[in-house]
Amino acid sequence: MATAGIQTNPDEFQERIDAGIKIEPKDAMPDAYRKTLIRQISQHAHSEIVGQLPEGNWITRAPSLKRKAILLAKVQDEAGHGLYLYSAAETLGVTREQMIEDLLAGKAKYSSIFNYPTLTWADIGAIGWLVDGSAIINQIPICRCSYGPYARAMVRICKEETFHQRQGFEIMLTLSRGTAEQKAMAQDALNRWWWPSLMMHGPSDKDSKHSAQSMKWKIKLFSNDELRQKFVDQTVPQAEFLGLTIPDKELKWNPERGHYDFGQIDWDEFQNIVQGNGPCNQERLQARISAHRDGAWVREAAAAYAQKHPRGARRSA
Ligand SMILES: [Fe+2]
Ligand SMILES: [Fe+2]
After folding, report:
1. 224 in Cβ contact with 208 (< 8 Å)
2. How far is the CA of 171 from the centre of ligand 2 (A)?
3. Any idea which of 175-189, 200-214, 258-272, 302-316 has the lowest mean pLDDT?
4. Is the alpha carbon torsion for 71, 160, 87, 309 positive or negative?
5. What is the distance between the alpha carbons of residues 160 and 121, in angstroms, rounded to a whole number?
6. Residue 313's CB: how many other CB atoms inside 10 A?
7. For residue 183, what pLDDT band results from cuts at 50, 70 and 90?
8. What is the CA angle 117-264-142, rounded to 5?
9. How far apart, in whole angstroms, are the C-alpha atoms of residue 227 and residue 221?
10. Ligand 2 centroid to 132 CA: how many Å?
11. How far is the CA of 56 from the centre of ligand 2 (A)?
12. How far apart are CA 33 and CA 26, in angstroms?
């Protein structure tokens, strides 16, 4: 899959990481570091691309032209995020074709949250507010991660995610200040998206098999549980502002810890979706397979054009 790079002494490599020196594509790096990054960045890229599907479902049904234009821009941003990230992964020696092939064959993972359905317009608000909100918390630290191309891609992505989060919150605000039916719709969306959003930070620290090494390599700067806590602490006051209730009876401010305590996550549900049995796993994969097949002529035409007009193709790339 990846081309083996220049081998390095693991101690010297660790010293560079500890000194805060960024690792660049042509630098020597341990194979395991390269493989971990390829896995993480490609999973991240796939999540951006598959993540377009639940929201794409509402583009034609957005309640106004303004909402449609905003949602279209947001979904388009996610495509861009996928492309930056595929490019960042390619710098590690894996090809884009290989990554796409793994996704379509069901071998590669993507964020399990995108295997839930979007049943009402309020889901678009909840996704922006909670799913993009969780993504920001996970991704801001990656702007400072040790691998240069990944860190730099994340800077722009995070700026756009902030817009996504705000647009979702604004939809929720409009609905919760609307009619009783609209407020109930917002509450229902919060009920369905809250727990999956907490799962987005990954398994509990005690069960997270890659965490320790990734933290040592500064691919990961905070643990899953720390990121999840941050998300809860940030989001509870926002839900209060909306006048909505978070569906967790155990949620309570803990003055000693200076954080909110919260209830148990259903990890069986999480594992079940990761293993491909979520409500929309089949549908999402099928949509990607069809899109890839239907877009074959575009790729062929672009390749033929690039061959005929190499300079022109480069200019317009
Ligand atoms: Fe994104
Ligand atoms: Fe986003």
Report:
1. yes
2. 15
3. 302-316
4. positive
5. 21
6. 14
7. very high
8. 70
9. 10
10. 5
11. 13
12. 14
